[in-house]
Amino acid sequence: MNASMVLIQGAESVLVDRAVSEILKAKVGAEITQLEGAAVEIGNFADATAPSLFSESRILVIKDMQDLVMDVQEEVERYLTEPDPALLLIFTHKGGIK
User: Fold this and answer.
1) On the CB side of 32, how many CA atoms lie within 13 Å of its CA?
2) In sequence order, what DSSP letters do the residues of 60-98 get, joined into one string?
3) Which of 16, 38, 39, 98 is most buried when burial is the number of CB atoms within 10 A of its CB?
4) Residues forming beta bridges with residue 92, ordered by sequence position
5) What is the pLDDT of residues 59-74, one digit of tens each?
6) Which of 45, 55, 33 is nearest to 80 (CA)?
7) pTM of the predicted model, to two decimals?
8) What are the two backbone dihedrals, phi and then psi, of residue 59, each rounded to the nearest 5 degrees?
């Protein structure tokens, strides 16, 4: 998989988790960081997307991105203007309107 961002949408958490697991299995050796949308504070996203000294291949999973606070959403939007090609972002979203 050469995508730099993946969105997995669905209300069924078992299926969403299975889809995330399949992607992670395909990226053996990558440094993996997982964050829960409701728990992400300003600066956490920037810290998680900062370059790593320990791994060339990195994955950041943000579960339930619909729960991100507005300031963090803006932080994500700024990052997406110039994403790091060495970082795979995986967002999960329950779907619908929050």
Assistant:
1) 13
2) EEEE-GGG--HHHHHHHHHHHHS--TTEEEEEEE--S--
3) 16
4) 8
5) 999 999 999 999 999 9
6) 45
7) 0.89
8) -135, 135
